[in-house]
What we know:
By secondary structure, the chain is mostly helical. The protein has five helices and no strands. InterPro entries: DUF1468. Keywords: Membrane, Transmembrane, Transmembrane helix. This is Tripartite tricarboxylate transporter TctB family protein.
Amino acid sequence: MAxxxxxxxxxxxxxAAFLTWFGYDLEAPFTYEPVGPKAFPLMxxxxxxxxxxxxxxKGGNTVEANPEGANFRIMSMVAYVAAYAFLFQWVGFxxxxxxxxxxxxxxxxxxxxxxxxxxxxxxxxxFFLFDKGLDVVLPTGILGxxx
Length: 147
């Protein structure tokens, strides 16, 4: 079976259904915001479903093959996201975000020094923006009381 827009649209609909099933039962142990944790996966599922319906409806245009090296970068991104999710609580937001940013930057041929500076700056900036500015509690991990 050749990959085309219609196949991708149907796959997107299945993925949207999975997100809906997974996200529908998310409940916070205590309510501190009116929307709760289920809003993000449900909104994301809606957007993916709308795109999936559009792709499935519009037709079977053939999809070009990925350029050389793209499949490796895609699989690397999947591994990076999994590692980020695993390390997030243990090492904390700042370090896990910095590491994720550094490795994603390198994946797209960024210079080491620029990736390191950008990763550390992004980790710290977003931590202070969300944790201190917006009062969203983020894990400090091994940095503990330094933040």
